Amino acid sequence: MGNCHYSKESAFEAEIAVIFLVAVLVTIDYNCNLSMSHRIKRIPFGYDGPLPTGRTLQRLLPKIMAGIEETQEQQPNVVLEAFQQILGNELSKIATAKSFVDGVLFVVVKNSTFLSVLHMQEKGRILAQLREKCPRHRFNNIVFRVG
After folding, report:
1. Does residue 31 sit in the same domain as residue 69?
2. Could you tell me the end-to-end alpha-carbon distance of the chain, in angstroms, rounded to an integer?
3. CA–CA separation, 34 vs 37, rounded Å?
4. CA distance 102 to 104
5. How many angstroms separate the CA atoms of 106 and 104, rounded?
6. CA 113, 117, 120, 122 torsion: positive or negative?
7. What pTM did the predictor assign?
């Protein structure tokens, strides 16, 4: 015989885990909705009406996922990949985007001549294309370094 029995303690622990998960989801939903315009309104203190006061996962999950997607889009790796796409396969071997911090993209270029061309002639075009590809990010400058 296998050990496939459930004790009252394990069932209680499972219920606690579900309650904790729901609490985390509600907290995430509240935190994600602080910056969003369509926030779920709180139930008034002392509410004694016919509607349930709980939130369903079907109602919470889309907003949580939207918040996660928004956070993911704000990640610097999106900008780094967009820079590589703008340059193309051949030129991305010579110039590599290393980091994106506070609106400044740092690029390491292997050749000083190519750095000069990028800085003097292509910087404006690259910034315009980055702003077009990543509208949620703020681009102030591109810093090219030989490396």
Report:
1. yes
2. 66
3. 8
4. 6
5. 6
6. negative
7. 0.51
